[in-house]
Amino acid sequence: MKEFLDIVNEKGMPTGQIVDRDTAHLKGIWHRTSHLWLVRKKNGTIQILLQKRAMIKSFPGCYDISSAGHIPAGEDFISSALRELKEELGVSAKVEELICCGDRTIIWDDVFFGKEYHDRQYTRVFVLWKDLEETEFCLQREELDSVCWMDLDLCMQGVKANSFRNCIEMEELMMVKEAVANM
Known about the structure:
This protein is an alpha+beta fold. Helix content is 22%, strand content 42%. Strands 3, 4, 5, 6, 7, 8 and 9 form a 7-stranded mixed β-sheet that branches. The longest helix is centred in the middle third of the chain and has 13 residues, at 77-89. It is globular.
């Protein structure tokens, strides 16, 4: 079944038109996503939860955002972030628990599974404080293989040095770090 997305303008506002996800990525049509990073304080440091992507997904076996997804047509950033969190990690949260880090755009061109891929995303980034152990998450195996907590500063160093398999953008980690710096 096709997944339909709102087509958005350069400010992330829906235009009133929709497009199926495959066409959006084939033609580079702007659409929205929400990214949600889980964080906790442990042993005097801030840790960030990374998901390891399933081998059948793009960027197979790479570490990525705690929970993320495309926003279906008619849905908003927050409801999508909370839905993806529940689907991918089995975690429920309330709207007021989310901390908005800001918005960013993603422009990226590649080839996946033999098909051209032109991504044009308007993304809202959120943080959620959640102190759970890795074994307490109920993982959606079609999407991810595992999760692990990593010290935020160590993660940033690793992404910068490309010292572990990941598809994480430093710009987004900086947004998260800034959002949690004074908490």
